[in-house]
């Protein structure tokens, strides 16, 4: 089990730039060239559509989103429709789950439980 890692507070970052950084880190971490990393940041107003998301699941029109400065992006991760915006801290753990934790769903469930317990304290 790897014991080292890194984290970074990035401030407010547009979604495309954050997604590009995550992909670069995924490649470096997967290749053993970098420690697991947690990115903490805020996004400009954005809605992401996960693999389970469809544009019709967003319940406001493109015109309303545009007036409010909200961009929409399709992402290759799980989930449906998610909004992120200024003032909301977003955490992106970029970790190599091999060899101990190859079950991504279990990892996300465990992470969720840890966040719930932390918030409760």
Notes on the protein architecture:
The chain is of the alpha/beta class and 121 residues long. Helices cover 32% and strands 28% of the residues. The strands form two sheets. The chain has a three-stranded mixed β-sheet with strand order 1-2-6, with helices on one face. β1, α1 (15-30) and β2 (36-43) form a beta-alpha-beta unit. It starts with a strand and ends with a helix. The model has no long low-confidence stretch (mean pLDDT 91).
Characteristic key phrases:
121 residues; alpha/beta; three-stranded mixed sheet; 3 helices; 28% strand
Gyration radius from CA atoms, angstroms: 16 Å
**Number of contiguous helices:** 3
Mean of residue pLDDT? 91
Content-based structural category: alpha/beta
Kindly report the spatial arrangement of strands forming the biggest sheet.
1-2-6
What is the global morphology? globular
How far apart, in Å, are the first and last alpha carbons? 27 Å
Oligomer: single chain
Q: What is the share of helical residues?
A: 25-40%
Contiguous uncertain segments of 5+ residues? none
Query: What fraction strand?
Result: 25-35%
The profile of the biggest β sheet is: 3 strands, mixed
Break the fold down into its secondary structure elements and pairings:
Blueprint: E1 5-13, H1 15-30, E2 36-43, E3 46-49, H2 62-67, E4 71-74, E5 81-84, E6 90-94, H3 104-120
Write a concise synopsis of the structure shown.
Helix content is 32%, strand content 28%. By secondary structure, it is of the alpha/beta class.
């Amino acid at each position: 089990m790897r014991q080292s890692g890194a984290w970074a507070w990035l401030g407010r970052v547009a979604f495309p730039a954050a997604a590009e950084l995550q992909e670069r880190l995924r490649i470096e971490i997967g290749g053993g060239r970098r420690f697991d990393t947690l990115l903490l940041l805020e996004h400009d107003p954005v809605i992401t559509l996960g693999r389970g998301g469809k544009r019709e699941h967003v319940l406001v029109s493109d015109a309303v989103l545009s007036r409010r400065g909200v961009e929409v992006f399709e992402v290759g991760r799980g989930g449906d429709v998610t909004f992120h915006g200024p003032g909301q801290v977003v955490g992106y753990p970029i970790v190599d789950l091999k060899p101990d934790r190859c079950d991504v769903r279990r990892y996300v469930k465990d992470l969720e439980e840890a966040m719930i317990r932390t918030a409760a304290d």
